[in-house]
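## Example record

The block below lists the input lines for one assembly entry, exactly as stored, with component labels intact.
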Amino acid sequence: MSHILILPGDGIGPEIVQEAVRVLRAAEQRFGLDISLDEAPVGGAAYDLHGDPLPQSTLDKARAADAILFGSIGGPKWDTIERDKRPERGLLRLRSSLGLFANLRPAILFPQLADASSLKPEVVSGLDILIVRELTGGIYFGQPRGIREENGERVGFNTDVYSESEMRRIAKVAFELAGQRNNKVCSVDKANVLEVTELWKEVVTDAAKDYPNIELSHMYVDNAAMQLVRAPKQFDVIVTGNLFGDILSDEAAMLTGSIGMLPSASLDENRKGLYEPCHGSAPDIAGQGIANPLATIMSLAMLMRYSLERGDVADAIQAAVEQVLDQGLRTADIYTEGTRKVSTEEMGAAVAEAL
Amino acid sequence: MSHILILPGDGIGPEIVQEAVRVLRAAEQRFGLDISLDEAPVGGAAYDLHGDPLPQSTLDKARAADAILFGSIGGPKWDTIERDKRPERGLLRLRSSLGLFANLRPAILFPQLADASSLKPEVVSGLDILIVRELTGGIYFGQPRGIREENGERVGFNTDVYSESEMRRIAKVAFELAGQRNNKVCSVDKANVLEVTELWKEVVTDAAKDYPNIELSHMYVDNAAMQLVRAPKQFDVIVTGNLFGDILSDEAAMLTGSIGMLPSASLDENRKGLYEPCHGSAPDIAGQGIANPLATIMSLAMLMRYSLERGDVADAIQAAVEQVLDQGLRTADIYTEGTRKVSTEEMGAAVAEAL
Ligand SMILES: CC(C)[C@H](C(=O)O)[C@@H](O)C(=O)O
Ligand SMILES: CC(C)[C@H](C(=O)O)[C@@H](O)C(=O)O
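Predicted structure tokens for the full assembly:
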């Protein structure tokens, strides 16, 4: 029996997660899976209930689960509360508490949605990049941090810090995954300026020695931001730190033009993971039943693949998504003339049906 | 009499700077300018001569000058020398020693070169963004920094740090410049995670009170990296810190598809400045006479505008560049069928001639 914890969160989170659960139920039936589901509040919803974006009871359930399916968090309602209680803090603490150091963010262009990209078709057709972002270290969590008084004015400061072992373990994840893809890893740093990434480059280079079949290259982050726009298909796997990964994975996602389609996984040492769509909580359209549930449904597919080791179920979910796209079903965000505009629920039901 | 210091640097630096000097000579004649020119080594070239990428004599000349025209630095030849002696360090020390805190990086799409972009024409046509990057603070220069031993392994660390006054002065530059453009400033931060940018957001918001005509917005850096790809024309002026500015300005530059066309200015409190093309030293094509000198020539135009307060000369240089583009002259990097491929020198001569 596998235990999956559902964390719907805020904004469109509950709606899209509900459709992923619908697909999960269909997968259970078809594959005879033995799954127990539990649910808990997180983010703004949890703050409203318990005064904390990550209540102890939610964290306990998360620790006990084999995998977590996460919706999205945040919204203007909680933008002005004290910083430590904001929805994002709940997510950051969850990543850190569970040791979810490996964030996998695919940027894949669906041929059915090629028009949605702001890039020329020849530049992005067939795009399939995997960004491997370190998620529990770097400047996100580095100490010291804060705002201090100095010479009569305030000074803000943060610390970017990585140990060799943190660098090595994320590099290994990237090499392993590249081995299942096109055997190319590009490590992104700013080694010409920052000592922390100078060490990063050295450690990644050293870790590569155990992977003779992988072709490792290095790129400065400013150049990577350019190359993603110029010729994104040159990349297979990109591995980088927490902050650069945040920026580059969003840039890469947007190359596809349909961020409503991109899932992500955040894994610990034992491949237990948290799975969430790359898009945010979109408070402006929450509750209208028009959000795109496909990124969350494909996050469920990643959950099957990585945490439940059911690549077969993952493939089936992925195929079901492709099928409904081929049938011309589209939520509003990916709608174009000549296709059929459907609601969140209709989309979820169609994928479950296809499965 | 105005004193201009020429720092050709490495790679294609000397070739492109030479053409900018040719244009400068033509401008002198046409406008009867009174200019004294001096030249000094910097970067790898200076290291080879003096064992230092920024020799004291070069720094002294730079301090004495009214403005500096800079080529480009770096190359594989110096990649393995000790870090403090690398070409980039010379540039960083120069920026810091001269207090060149305001880096202006326009990303402009030339209608003549619209095809060069990897983005769809409708997404980028007419693009005209100005990125204002803080250049002497933040994680580039923050202390403490280095690599230390901890629990039997190495740990790399850097410090991102900004004082209120540093934030305020760069914000003011952005507001002033926006006032001469479309009155919109977008400040980019990661205030949901980093305290240093939380303070940034607060200080920029406060500084905006003196500029009631400017419309100020805020964006997280990951979203900004996305929005630049999705809909870059939503931006007028973007203001941000050193590291985010490095990444976003290169991304924005690449949206135009012709980074060989983009100039930059780095100004101090008194608008004394260093002017350089956005592209690098391109060691692979150095010495072949095929590099594009236009970014350097337009850097000269910025020099005229900001440091010499000769907007008229700047406009004339800019017009001369447009004219040779209209005539169909192209260096190899921007060549397309139906245009005339010319050398670095032919391009420089044509602009000088048009002037
Ligand atoms: C919400 C925010 C803290 C988060 C991050 O920066 O990691 C988000 O942007 C992401 O990428 O998951
Ligand atoms: C060469 C390097 C140190 C420099 C920087 O990062 O500032 C360059 O990328 C730039 O943007 O001018």
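The mean pLDDT of chain B is 96. The longest helix of chain B spans residues 13-31.
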